[in-house]
Structures
1.
Amino acid sequence: MSRIRNIIFDLGGVIINLDPARTRNAFTALGASNFEALYSFSQQNGVFDLLDKGLISNASFRDEMRKQITVDVSDQQIDDAWNAMLLDVPEEKIQLLKQLQPRYRTFLLSNTNRIHVDCFSKELLRVHGSKDFSPWMERCYYSCDIGMRKPEAEIFQFVLNENNLLAEETLFIDDSPQHITGAASCNIKTLHYTPGSSLSDALSNRGLM
């Protein structure tokens, strides 16, 4: 087996704790009666997919959300509901990234959108002193910036090519099975992470710590 030299991390559910039910409940409280069905459908296409790929503006996204809500709501109310799923970046995750830096080339690859990026950037700065992950990662790739989204093979190949990475020397860590499958289709090694478990232990069990 080739030695792992590079590690690509997912963000939500791996580095940042998430609770999607908070967003569902927040939109329901605003009056969106079918948000859960809409959001589930979006996993393959729809307004959420377009937002994550940066193909529609934040304003267009908010207008689409207003179509699902029976009362007048402000931009801030929509943003707050959409961001409700974002929790914390635990200190132990930052410390783990610091430990890995000297031994591996580390990268971030996330399906995310500009509303979420703006939100977690403020929290990251407040708690950890940096507005982004650049102190602990070589490069950060957000789907909204590059117009591609996991589990599409092209997004994994893009990261490999741009950084001259060999797939067989690269480990991708994600909590979504479909994203793991997408990475594996490019011959990238994978680790399917269970949110709430020890990421350090998962890496140690692979002989990477």
2.
Amino acid sequence: MKKKECPSCAMEIEAGLKTCPICQYEFPQRDPAIKWVAIVLIIAILFGIFFLRSWF
């Protein structure tokens, strides 16, 4: 199983846990919408660089 390191106590724990069983550190939850917004922005920037550059 995958492991991750707790930034508080440096123990390796299972990647699926939301809190460290040793020190009770709560891992921050990421909003999946942020990932998709970043992907769309990168695609828009690349589109602008490669396709719109030829118009000017």
3.
Amino acid sequence: MELEEKIKSLIEEIRPYLNMDGGDIEFIKYEDHFVYVKLKGHCVECMDQDFTLKNSILAMLQNEIPEIEGIVNVEL
């Protein structure tokens, strides 16, 4: 499986958990070992968004794809 497709698949596994709290996540791109996403819904205003990104989503992604160095929330 292509790396970007694997990342998208992993993000799809995460989405239901964010959806339960009124949030969502959209994959934007993978570039230079960084995953770019857009948080949506309640995640946008959540005070724990950095914790969720780095300690939950990034940790899960790195567990499956160790070459990922970080995750960036982009605001489009």
4.
Amino acid sequence: MGLFCLSAMPLARPQVIDFESNGLHYKTLTKNGLTIMFANLPAHVRSYAIIQVAVANGAPVSWTVKPEDFLFIRPDGQEMRALDADTVVDSLVEKAGRGDVIKLVTTYEGVLYGSPNFKSTTNGFEVRRQNALAEVSSTKIKAAAAASAIAFVRTKLNPGESTDGAVFFENAGKPLGAGKLHIHAAGADFDFETEAPGSAASEKR
């Protein structure tokens, strides 16, 4: 009878968890064994709003995650999809100065290495950075390589693996602001409410 009662109970609905780490406000949610966490990065490059994303696969099956899975929805319903890594890198190489890339790299490294919550095992920033910079000497190429190392790329995560990276939205260089971040991954919808910078909700942490 006890087993029947347990099986008849509704499963708890996954809840978004908020926490602070290394000065940034993170939100995280787990569905189907896949955990996605993100925070708005304070730095911006040119016209991009940038978020840091970490994904960990605790499921017994493999899941693939890519930047195009990320969609920002404004309160008026306007949608803005994240750019794929190739588009971001091409744009940074063409339009952004080396100083912009260095600023972004410095910000990202500061967040990554200052937080105990990021321990990527698969194709994360540290792996991509080492691979990208190992074989180049040109300053311009190094800047491009650094940009490619930061950008979140399509990654297949086997059970127990994780990755991280920066996801870019074309937003006139402004933060995403109030709205909803929607991610379709692992056969599920991950929805996060976002607040405008400086709002009472965004500062309540």
